[in-house]
Amino acid sequence: MVKVEKSENQEFLEKSISHLEATGFENIKADMEGYETPKSYVRKAKGAETKITPDIVAVKNGRKYYFEISLKSEKPRLLKTKWLFLDTLSRMNQNRFRIITTRGHYKFTDSMLQDINLSNKEPIKI
Which of 38, 58, 64, 107 could hold 25 in an S-S bridge, CB 3.0 to 4.6 Å? Predict the structure, then answer.
């Protein structure tokens, strides 16, 4: 989710966190009240700096997972950049990267994953 849209979608973020807790994830970090904020990464490109913060970071069986919430966005290009960065970061460190989505956003999520050649990722549908 792009930072601008986080405040609008707080409810779905909470729903996603409770789903992750129910499926055995622990040490959950999320960019919302009551949770520790995940580590941010700075991306420098063409003189501009962009801060990339995963929506949710959690641990299961000793392995770190990065979760991104996929909802229809006004800034799909920024979202694609963020997903590619987090996917690369997770593969470098032998972690996992997952996408969480909900009804009404499946087609958007699938087309975004196709566009950036991450069609092997199966979104978690809540």
Answer: 58
Q: Which domains does the chain have, with CATH numbers?
A: 3-125 (3.40.1350)
Mean pLDDT over each residue of the chain, to the nearest integer: 91
| Residue 58 structure tokens | 């959690």
User: Each residue of 8-44: pLDDT tens digit?
Assistant: 788 899 999 999 999 999 999 998 888 999 999 988 8
Angle among Cα 22, 27, 30 to the nearest 5 degrees reads 85
Q: Which residue from 99, 25, 31 is spatially nearest to 69, judged by alpha carbons?
A: 99
User: 82: closest CA among 108, 118, 58, 106?
Assistant: 118
What are the b/e assignments for 33-66, b being 16+ CB within 10 Å? eeeeebeeeeeeeeeeeeebbbbbbbeeeeebbb
What is the pTM for the complete model shown? 0.91
Angstrom distance (rounded) from CA 106 to CA 98 = 14
* Rounded Cα distance, 44 and 30, in Å: 23
pLDDT tens for 103-118 read 999 999 999 999 999 9
